[in-house]
Design goal:
By secondary structure, the protein is mainly α. It contains five helices and no strands.
């Protein structure tokens, strides 16, 4: 029989998994959006959200939900953002928050540049300036 804290912890783990998938989507989404306008639109919105959460003090709703679920489970929730807590410790153990933020923004800007290049190539030839 599961206790309420076990269920909250299971939900917190599920949110963590969704959060990780969202980050993978933000980083690599441009690869799967070609010729898929709905996915492209969703990915561009995700990129903009990623940039805003890196550059502003806004908290990601997934981080807030995960913290709340961990608190309900009796686990001490972490402080700070998802990237700093999990990804920093797993991938970049001794990197500053500033470098991590710059890297995140660079990834988002690179993806937006891919979209800009695709849009430029799609423009009709007679509308291009030479």
């Amino acid at each position: 029989m599961h206790t309420a804290s076990d269920l909250y912890l299971a939900f917190a783990t599920a949110v963590l998994f969704v959060h990780a998938l969202f980050i993978v989507w933000v980083v690599f989404g441009a690869v799967v959006t070609r010729s898929r306008p709905i996915l492209r639109g969703l990915h561009i919105v995700s990129l903009i959200w990623g940039i805003l959460t890196e550059l502003t003090p806004w908290s990601c709703p997934l981080t807030l939900l995960e913290n709340w679920l961990e608190q309900k489970a009796g686990v001490e929730p972490y402080q700070g953002g998802f990237l700093l807590h999990y990804m920093d410790r797993l991938v970049y153990p001794d990197i500053s928050a500033t470098v991590l933020t710059v890297a995140g923004v660079f990834v988002c800007a690179f993806n937006l540049a891919i979209y800009g290049r695709r849009a430029w190539r799609v423009r009709p030839h007679n509308q291009r300036r030479t």
